[in-house]
Amino acid sequence: EKAEAERKAEEERLAKEKAEAKRKAEEERLAKEKSHAEPTTKEEVVVDELAKDTSDSMTATRVATPLERKAAKEGLLRCMEVGSAAQLASAIEAASAADLDMDEVWFAQVTQKRRTAVENLQGLLAAENLHLESPREVETLKMSILEALVKKANSSPRAAFEDMQGRKAR
Question: Which residues lie below 8 Å from residue 127, measured CB to CB, with a gap of 6+?
Answer without folding.
Answer: 18, 21, 22, 24, 25, 26, 157
